[in-house]
User: What shape does this take?
Amino acid sequence: MPSTPDPVDIVVLVSGSGTLLQALIDATADPAYGVRIAAVGADRGRIEGLARAERAGIPTFVERVRDYPGRSEWDAALAARVRAEAPALVVTAGFMKIVGPDMLTVAPILNTHPALLPSFPGAHGVHDALAYGVKVTGSTIHLVDDGVDSGPILDQRIVEVRDDDTEGSLHERIKVHERAMLVDYVGRMAREGFRIDGRRVRVGDGPPPRS
Assistant: This one.
């Protein structure tokens, strides 16, 4: 019987309730998934995302912007803390801070966004799509670059906008797809490898990452 390969280490960054993180925690309970969450970091303390990690026995850390003279110093400190875990991937799961150049050198960073990029980037994607009056929106999973939600796209899922939608009801339906895509692509990238080719991410084309 073939042995299960060693899992690939990832670090997950959160800012809030951690529902995306929980989906990853649940997935990593299966050794065949091929991923271990080495640590969960946050930009603020006393949030449910950190509590979820602690209940699962995952080490946590907090790096707050206000504890540093400026954003560049915060970014350098965050990068150093994440780099100490030697992750093959970093996942920003509802992390509400834009990372800087130091973090971008640590490892590929995977993010989900609650809109169909390049439309409605930024922190208010659901609100902006609803206010614009679009008939469909959805979720995007992409790599993080030095712009705002502008990195190479891996996948997108469409969600119909209903006439009676509120921002909350629409966001809840989008989150279903966000969670599914994140679990799918983190696992596939860990098990099958990936290659970044300009604006394309070719999953399954390249050696699996190793921590």
About this structure: Residues 26 and 124 are 28 Å apart (CA to CA). The beta strands are 8-14, 35-42, 60-62, 89-92, 109-113, 136-143, 153-160, 194-197, 200-203.
